[in-house]
Design brief:
Layout lengths: L1 H30 L10 H13 L13 H12 L1 H16 L2 H27 L6 H9 L1 H38 L5 H20 L2 H30 L20 H13 L20 H30 L10 H9 L6 H30 L6 H4 L10 H21 L4 H27 L17 H23 L1 H20 L1 H12 L3 H8 L6
Helix pairs in contact: 1-5, 1-11, 3-9, 3-11, 3-13, 4-10, 4-11, 4-12, 4-13, 5-10, 5-11, 5-17, 6-7, 6-16, 7-8, 7-13, 7-15, 7-16, 7-18, 8-13, 8-15, 9-11, 9-12, 9-13, 10-17, 13-15, 15-16, 16-17, 16-18, 17-18
Length: 537
């Protein structure tokens, strides 16, 4: 009973933190000089957003179509509640027991919310497609900015490979059972190629379709969660087990190192639910009023993922007995489908969710690469920074990201065949953690003297520095724990990536510095000339 009360108190603390940070941020927006011009017409707001972009020496080449729900969907779909839970729920429970949901999930959600508040504040400072890359460049200089940008791109590319791997494995098995062919490496890679090509095609043809799919992805994930809960409630209400089950350390009794490690490793697997929250900042140049909407999207996507995820996974845990053994997909799918008589609709929904998460992750990757190329911070920059005049999308960057993600998956698959997903997960966690840590660390150092930081409407006031300090500590802790308890090979891959990034930064340092200097010094006339072929909306 004591553990149950402790677990309920922990959940209440997380909800209280959500409400407190949201109140603080809304208060800062109300007191800021920021003006939302939507009331004067969309065109007035678009002109204001373009003016903000011009302050950084950037032309408005991407089309602004993302509203509040679309911006929220970019982060929410990258987090991928349903898809992430589908292939991590079984292994997490099998590793650490039910307590990873009762205690583990609220703990990581609590610190993820604090981290999301830090990243949201930074995204309000620099409303560009570069996101934390440009923030790190502004605060710490071009060298740290390039490192942050490429670490962020590497982490998201690893996540894209991971999501498409899980989606292809599920889709290949589903089609095999329906059509009657035998699954093999060939069929798997054909499915992977098809999925990646379809995501590229959607990104290729512009953000009109992307905007609708981002909003639709939010509705889809919420619908799937409600669909599963409704089915289980109809089948097993009030459930086969007491909620007390979630607060018992069955697989992780605290009487030895191995048992404690099981709880930690099981909990760390759920980190995927909160990796990639900053995705909406990469859509800032396509978002209407990004200084406010992008930060809210980052923070609220994390909050909603926790609330919906906790209710869904808790309900699944106590409703019916779970299948034996940690299965990447089987445990979640069997439990979710049980409430609807084993219907295959659940599998179809999860496939759609994974595909949608991969689609939005590809969008985020392409915008990061586009920003790096636009600043001359990578090979063949002029080619990869090209924007289609017809679709107003960085098409070369989209296809480059697709090729790189397939290459990453190919290397991981044939190097660590049985541990592909866990290897990619570890690499993604470490790369993204390090990319987040760079601008946050510089924010702590420059917080009181950098004028740009005080101009952002979405900020945390006196809470800012303490929240950033906690975020840094959490990032460093989870980076170390992921290397120890999930897969040490992922940390080796991250180290290799960091070494390559450092070499690339040295190689392109002079060119990158000149590009940044010339960009900031661009005249309004030059910017308008660059924008002449790109409609405002």
């Amino acid at each position: 009973m004591i553990l149950l009360l402790a677990g309920l108190l922990l959940f209440a603390i997380v909800i209280a933190v959500i409400m407190a940070i949201a109140f603080k941020a809304q208060q800062s927006i109300s007191l800021s000089k920021h003006q939302n011009l939507i009331g004067y017409g969309l065109q007035a707001q678009l002109l204001q957003d373009k003016h903000d972009l011009h302050r950084y020496g950037l032309a408005q080449q991407l089309r602004r179509r993302f509203g509040g729900l679309s911006s929220f969907g970019l982060s929410f779909n990258v987090l991928g509640l349903i898809g992430s839970a589908a292939f991590l729920f079984g292994p997490a429970i099998g590793e650490g027991g039910p307590s990873v949901i009762g205690f583990g999930l609220p703990i990581i959600a609590l610190f993820a919310l604090i981290l999301s508040a830090s990243l949201a504040e930074l995204s309000s400072v620099t409303p560009t497609a570069g996101g934390i890359y440009h923030t790190a460049s502004s605060l710490g200089g071009r060298s740290w900015g390039v490192r942050a940008g490429w670490l962020q791109a590497s982490g998201h590319l690893a996540m894209l490979a991971l999501l498409n791997c899980a989606c292809a494995a599920l889709l290949d098995g589903f089609m095999s059972a329906r059509i009657g062919y035998q699954t093999s490496d060939l069929t798997f890679w054909c499915v992977v190629a098809g999925l990646t090509a379809s995501q590229c095609a959607v990104n290729h043809f512009g953000n009109r379709m992307l905007s609708k799919l981002q909003a639709g992805g939010v509705i889809l994930q919420i619908f799937i969660a409600l669909f599963i809960i409704a089915g289980l409630a109809w089948l097993a209400w009030p459930g086969s087990y007491s909620p007390v089950l979630m607060y018992q350390f069955q697989n992780a009794e605290w009487n030895g190192t191995v048992q404690a490690g099981s709880f930690v490793s099981g909990t760390l697997l759920l980190l995927k639910l909160f990796i990639g929250m900053e995705g909406s900042s990469q859509g800032s140049e396509e978002t209407i009023d990004p200084r406010v909407r992008a930060p809210w999207s980052i923070f609220l996507s994390t909050a909603y993922t926790f609330v919906i995820g906790f209710v869904l996974l808790s309900f699944m845990l106590i409703s019916i007995p779970l299948s034996n053994g940690p299965s990447w997909l089987g445990t979640f799918l069997q439990t979710a489908a049980a409430g609807w008589g084993g219907t295959s609709m659940i599998i179809i929904f999860v496939i759609l969710s994974l595909w949608s998460s991969g689609l939005q992750t590809m969008t985020v990757c392409s915008r990061i690469v586009y920003s790096l190329a636009r600043d001359g911070a990578m090979p063949l920059s002029q080619r990869w920074s090209n924007v289609s005049e017809r679709h107003q999308t960085p098409i070369p960057a989209v296809w480059l990201c697709a090729v790189i993600s397939l290459t990453i998956l190919l290397i991981a698959f044939f190097s660590y065949r049985d541990d592909t997903i866990i290897f990619l997960l570890t690499a993604a966690i470490i790369c993204l953690n390090l990319s987040y840590a760079i601008p946050i660390a510089w924010k702590i150092k420059q917080g009181k003297i950098h004028a740009q930081l005080h101009a952002s409407p979405w900020h945390l006031g006196s809470w800012s520095i303490p929240i950033h300090v906690v975020s840094i500590a959490w990032l460093l802790l989870t980076t170390i724990l992921a290397a120890i308890f999930i897969d040490y090979r992922g940390s080796i891959a991250a180290f290799v990536i960091l070494t390559l990034i450092s070499f690339m930064e040295l190689r392109y340092r002079q060119k990158h510095g000149m590009s940044l200097q010339s960009r900031v010094n661009r005249s309004r006339k030059e910017l308008y000339f660059m924008e002449r072929k790109f409609p405002l909306n």
